[in-house]
Structure to design on (201 residues):
């Protein structure tokens, strides 16, 4: 999909966990609070991902590449810089917007959670249906679909609320069910900037 005449090159923030999901090909969608009737991105926009980073004499390093510990190319004087301070010139992840839709946050099914890169998590006590310990998947059970959705919903709910300031959870958190922009995207390569890409750097 090539940028159209209204397409732009725009930044987008992701935390380290979500950058890893994008790099692994697991995350192909993101939800952003609908602050107005105008979506923040349009189909065809190229989004450059702002992520946690560091530059030293050995080059540019990205926190998402080191999930198990410190980067061996950084010494005691080096520090990770917040993603909000990343410049476009050192961005390495580019996304092309393929669809934008306004929905309510809690209007999500299992497929939606998967597109968000969410991995399912069992409840500590497991499923409470009548067949939980005896051939569960082989017997009819009205609770199974609800429990399966819950396995994805709970980690997404916790992740969503954790990205908000504490004061905003009541009005913008999962339970508040705010309107959001659902933005689906594909990975793309860094390209030479074109005159039609006139978005903010």
């Amino acid at each position: 999909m090539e940028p159209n005449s209204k397409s732009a090159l725009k930044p987008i923030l992701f935390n380290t966990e979500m950058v890893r999901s994008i790099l692994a090909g697991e995350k192909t969608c993101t939800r952003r609070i609908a602050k107005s009737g105008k979506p923040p991105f349009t189909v065809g926009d190229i989004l450059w991902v702002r992520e946690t980073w560091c530059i030293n004499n050995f080059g540019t390093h990205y926190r998402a590449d080191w999930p198990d510990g410190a980067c061996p190319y950084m010494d005691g004087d080096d520090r990770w810089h917040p993603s909000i301070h990343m410049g476009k010139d050192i961005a390495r992840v580019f996304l092309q917007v393929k669809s934008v839709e306004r929905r309510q946050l809690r209007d999500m099914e299992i497929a939606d959670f998967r597109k968000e890169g969410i991995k399912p998590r069992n409840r500590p006590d497991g499923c409470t249906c009548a067949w939980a310990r005896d051939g569960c998947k082989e017997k009819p059970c009205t609770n199974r679909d609800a429990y399966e959705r819950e396995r994805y919903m709970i980690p997404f709910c916790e992740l969503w609320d954790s990205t908000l300031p504490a004061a905003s959870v009541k009005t913008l958190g999962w339970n508040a069910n705010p309107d959001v922009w659902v933005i689906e995207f594909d990975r793309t390569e860094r390209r030479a900037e074109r005159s039609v890409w006139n978005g903010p750097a």
Remarks:
- Confidence is low (pLDDT under 50) at residues 195-201.
- The chain is about 20% helix and 20% strand.
